[in-house]
Design goal:
alpha+beta
Length: 131
């Protein structure tokens, strides 16, 4: 019974996922050649909807060995409609151990910047000294 209640609570509350936003694109990569850019949100790959980076990675790993044009639908920052980008790939992820699905395409996920903030220094404890 507890399992049913826990499952119901998870269903009602939902889960939080990180939207697949492109952080940077490596120059001369398949993503750069296709025109994908920083700030684009990936909404579909090969026609399948993507809601999180987990979805993106699972889809990319599922097409190991693919050759041709990898279609990624992405929404530029501030736009309401997605555009299709065709990334040229040949034997995608073949002979990679472990596979690097995003890096192979030249995509780095966006990550928020969290500056390091020093709360307090406690006397009598080891600390880093400035020269």
């Amino acid at each position: 019974m507890l399992a049913i209640v826990a499952y119901w609570a998870l269903f009602v509350a939902g889960t939080t996922v990180v939207s697949p936003m492109v952080g940077s694109v490596a120059p001369d990569s398949p993503a750069a050649e296709a025109g994908l850019a920083e700030g684009h949100e990936i909404v579909a790959i090969q026609g399948d909807e993507m809601r999180s980076w987990e979805d993106v990675n699972l889809k990319l790993v599922s097409i190991i060995g693919f050759s041709g044009e990898l279609n990624i639908d992405a929404r530029p920052e501030g736009a309401s409609d997605a555009q299709r980008y065709g990334l040229p790939v040949n034997d995608y992820l073949v002979r990679q151990d472990p596979p690097q699905p995003l890096q192979t395409l030249g995509i780095t996920p966006w990550q928020p910047e969290f500056p390091a903030v020093l709360g307090q220094v406690v006397s009598g404890r080891p600390q880093i000294r400035q020269a």
